[in-house]
Amino acid sequence: MNNPDKIDLLNRLLESEFTGLECYRTHASAISEPEIAEGILAIIPVEHAHAVGLTTRISELGGLPARPGGPASARGRDLAAASRQQGTQAMLKLELTLEQEAIKEYAAAVADIVDDMITVEMLEEQLLDEIRHAKWLKQQLST
């Protein structure tokens, strides 16, 4: 995969992180169950670290990283607002859906990048975080 394609791929992942961050931030203040809100609050810095890592790697590869506040952030706010009106279960289901999408995107990126182990290793670590988040969300939905 050439650098422009890799940068595009990493920017798509970065935009997904922005969407997820907006959802988690909105939901953290809206969830009335303290233990669930605490879990959501614990996810936010991990997702933020993913965005920072992706931003750094895109820059290292000579690309221009996407910036928060654009369409991906607006999408996150819109999705969060819609699910917020439906309650905690709807918010958790939305977050799980976003994590599942991220898992697929990260796994595909790990599979597609064959010439850049620095990026692959970063993406593998972030993929494991996304899997952990999805697992936690599933546990919350099943109780």
Describe the structure.
- The protein is built from 5 helices and no strands.
- It is mostly helical.
- Helix 2 (34-60) packs antiparallel against helix 5.
- The chain starts with a helix and ends with a helix.
- The mean pLDDT is 91.
Number of beta strands = 0
Q: Give the proportion of residues in helices.
A: over 70%
Strand content: under 5%
Average pLDDT figure: 91
Radius of gyration: 15 Å
Secondary structure tally, helices = 5
Give a quick rundown of the structure.
This protein has helices at 3-30, 34-60, 71-84, 88-112, 117-141. With 143 residues, the chain is mainly α.
Write the layout of secondary structure elements.
Layout: H1 3-30, H2 34-60, H3 71-84, H4 88-112, H5 117-141
Provide keyphrases for this structure.
single chain, 143 residues, mainly alpha
